[in-house]
Amino acid sequence: MNWKKTIKIAALVIGFLVLAFIGFSGYVYYNFYGKFKADESRYPYYIGYIDQETALLNDNFELCGNRTIYKTHHGAPFDAYQNNKRTFTESVHKTYKNEGYTDSGYVNFRFLVNCEGNPGWFEIIEINENYEEVSHTKQMVAQLLKITSDPSHWAIYTADKMPKNYYHYVSYKIENGEIIEILP
User: Which residues neighbour 15 within 8 Å (Cβ) at sequence distance 6 or greater?
Assistant: First the structure.
């Protein structure tokens, strides 16, 4: 009566092989046929792309190594801040001075940090409370850029024990010229 045990083992092996084949087939299908193709004429760049030609503070900024940029989809909120976000927030609130600004909305900074922890290639997006693009007071935006671009705020990101370049963003929520919140 050992043949029943043999049939069970054979059925389990065949079942496992069938599941492995289905999983592998699904993986191949997804990667070669199932992914949505990006319309590269409309969207020629990856998420997190910053145009070097229009970026601010790009005069002396250099990417390291093979110039690969990490954390492009969502930035590096847990890895970017030197020490931690709380230290960054406290430093910003201590340094920032409202010099009679009455602006409200958001000032968003998108930028890269190289393997030495130096930020550069800044892109600034200014919007109001209704998420419409506006221009805030130039002096306020310049002050926030100076604070955000201070290298002492940014950590060196490592992967595989090697320092890497990475993308990050910071959004300041402003009400009547005061910083209410810093995101992310």
Answer: none
Count how many domains the chain has.
2
- Which three-class secondary structure state does DSSP give residue 4? helix
d(CA 107, CA 126): 5
Residue range 4-59, pLDDT digits in tens:
888 888 899 999 999 999 999 888 888 777 676 666 666 655 566 676 777 676 67
Enclosing domain of residue 83: 69-183
88 located within any domain = yes
- Count CA atoms closer than 13 A to 109's CA, side-chain side: 24
In a domain, 59, yes or no: no
166 in any annotated domain: yes
